[in-house]
Structure formats: structure tokens, C-alpha cells
Amino acid sequence: MTLLAVERIKLFTTRSPWWCALIALALTIGFAGLIAGSLPSGETLSVANTQAGHQFGIAVVMVLAALAVTTEYRFGTIRTTFQAVPHRGSVLVAKATVVAVLSLVIGEIAAFGAWGLGYAIRPSDSVALQSSADWITVAGVGVVFAFAAVIAVAVGTLIRHSAGALSLLLIYVLAVENLVQLIPTIGPKIHEWMPFTVAERFLGGSSGGPGTADAALSQWGSLAYFAGVAVVLLAIAIGVAKKRDA
User: Fold this and answer.
1) Which of 85, 131, 152, 242 could pair covalently with 62 via S-S, beta carbons 3.0-4.6 A apart?
2) Membrane-spanning residues where (predicted)?
3) How many whole angstroms separate alpha carbon 60 and alpha carbon 27?
């Protein structure tokens, strides 16, 4: 509990989490407003449409999570932390937990805010949360945000430099998984198992989202797979952190 409190204090005494949270909320909710406001009168706004901006929110949350680690390496405060708590794994798990909880909260506020704005703009459409599929599409965003933050903490721990970690995360999340599909023959098969592609399948699995009909994993299996990727990456990062100098 003490480690969690320490990591919480360290996180919230810097400005970057606040700015990243605001940007993630603005992007996720703003896109819902743009889509709802620009739809022709004859078209229907769906629950999934209101969450169209969550991918940009994920990218910003991963920036927040990576900075929580790389900033400490940049200013050398991680050395003091490891001297005070020699068990480095506990420190990194506590940091990942705090960042994941914050990301979960940001994701839920963003998702329900986006849904609420879409419903306010197009109240006559079928935007009400009437089924478990609708609830997962909205409430599941925060869960995906949380595990994405754990992945970003792991990458930040492995790379340690802010510029390198942020560049890798943003390029991967916004481009790499989609570009993999362009590889002849094996591209689509690889793409099917890419972590964020699988996470999207969790959010849209019960509502018949793209690619869900032939998916190798079930909806909850997709979430378990994404969570497993996050945990494995964090375990690798902890193992590397234990073997090298801070």
C-alpha cells in the first residue's frame, strides 16, 4: 500500500498526467460530437459510432503511462526509488497498477462522455444502452485503456528514453498493426493476432464488429489475450530492469 501511495504522489505531482488526461478526454468525446453532428439526417448513429475516437485516446493514455517511467529515468529519481526499495519488481508493479487505475478512470469517463454527447445530439437514434453488447462497447473502453497503459509502462521501462518510447508506441498503435496487413500472404494472418486488433475485437465482438465473425478468439478470450500480452511485457520489463543499472 505504501508503494502505491508513493507512486500515486509521484504521478500526480507532475503536469503531464493532467494534460494527457484532458487531451484523451477531448479527443474521445470530441470525435463522438463530430460524428453525431455530421451524420446526415437519414443515417442512424450507433453506440459503436460514439466510441470512434477511443483509439486516439488510447494513444494519449499510453504517452501518459510511458512518461511515468521515462521521466524518472531522465531525471535520475528512479535510482533513489530503487535504493529505497531494492525489489525493483514491486516498484514497477506498483507504478503499472497506479497508471492502469488512472487510465481505467480516464477511459470510462471518456467512453461514457462520448456516448452521452452522441445521445444528446441524436436522441432519436438507437444510442441507448439496451444490451450487454452496448454496455461492453462503452464500458470496455476503460478496461482496454488500463491494459494499454501497462503495455506502455513496460515499453518505457525497456527503452527508458522518452523520445524513443513515445515514438515506438505511437507509431505502433497508429500505424504498424494496420500496415502489417499489406504483407503478402501472411499479413492478414499476423494482423489477426496483433494485440490492439484483438482488443478492438473485444469491444465490438458481441455487436458484430468488423472481422468478428471469423475471429479465432471469443470476445472475452480476446480480452484475456490482450491482458496476457500486457502482463508478459511487464514481466519481461521487470526482468530486464533487475539485470541492468538504473
Assistant:
1) 152
2) 18-40, 52-71, 92-115, 135-159, 166-186, 223-241
3) 9
